[in-house]
Amino acid sequence: MKILITGVHGFVGSNLVKALSDRNEIYGLDIVAPQKDGVVKTFSWSDLDNGSIPEVDAIIHLAGKAHDTKNKSAADIYFKVNTDLTKKIFDYFSSHDGIKKFIFFSSVKAAVNKVPGDVLTEDVTPSPVGPYGESKVKAEEYILKCLGDAPAKYQGCDVIILRPCMIHGPGNKGNLNLLYGVVSKRIPWPLGAFENKRTFTSIDNLSFVIDRLLHTNVESGIYNMADDDALSTNELIAVMCQAMGRSPHILRISKGLIKSTAKLGDYLHLPLNTFRLEKLTENYVVSNRKIKQALGIDSMPVKATDGLTLTIKSFQNK
Q1: Chain centroid to CA 37
Q2: Does 262 lie in the same domain as 220?
Q3: How confident is the model over 60-70, as pLDDT tens digits?
Q4: Helices 85-94 and 131-149 meet at what angle, rounded to 10?
Q5: Among 315, 7, 304, which residue's Cα sits nearest to residue 165?
Q6: What is the span of the domain harbouring residue 279?
Q7: Considering only CA atoms, which of 276, 252, 250 is closest in space to residue 262?
Q8: At residue 35, does pLDDT exceed 80?
Q9: What b/e readout covers 244-265, taking b as 16+ CB neighbours within 10 angstroms?
Q10: In terms of DSSP bridges, do strands 231-232 and 197-198 run parallel, antiparallel, or are they unpaired?
Q11: What is the CATH number of the domain that holds 306?
Q12: What is the pLDDT of residues 199-221, one digit of tens each?
């Protein structure tokens, strides 16, 4: 199979190249186009308009502006990259009848910033907060509108909108930065009284799913992507410590005292305030049932704890 991967030089793109290049012919599309092992050739975005990109069977659209947790990026950048580039590559896909697979990497943040109820499923009404999620959902809406306006045009094609939750893997710990920094410095975790649950996505599980999507016919639409098991922050710290050969230091200070301290932090500009406490202790559990049913599998190949252990050990080695 010939596959075009946008954003091929990123963390996910590099891992997909490793996972797919043995059995497929991989082409890249990125802002810069240096030669990359496992990629026949990498093109620039301007090449979409000049006809130099060879015919492919599938497009995996990874390119995007990542979520800026420090909120320093201008809002219009998200829409120029996450929305406009998605429209551009989807229009390219729509105009080439030979391409039968289109996989767009969106995000669970396109659905909701905070999970309503216990588990996030694909049928939730999107209500993103902030330009990252809003720009992703605008891209989703464009794709879905195209499918709805001309269903006959896309018959025989699989158009997959994938919403992964936090992706991690060897060499990239993503938003696990803050927690890893605390644990690696042997700082006791003071929020042990909060048993919040969160779902992650191992890069190995993600690569497995993408490979299966490329070689399995599934119904076009939106699919969440996550590991099978959700972990509490306390469990995550235990996994980190085990990977580092240490004992976890978790303090179970009363929730009332922690919440009072956070309220005080709102006024005194302390490291802990009510907003940060909510983000650190919220539940964000994502269902992967739909994607497993579509692929005909009962479970993901890599357990959540095993994937996280690989990530932490690789960072230690680095």
Answers
A1: 24
A2: no
A3: 999 998 866 55
A4: 20
A5: 304
A6: 168-200+228-286+300-318
A7: 276
A8: no
A9: beeebebeeeeeeebeebbeeb
A10: antiparallel
A11: 3.90.25
A12: 999 999 999 999 999 999 999 99
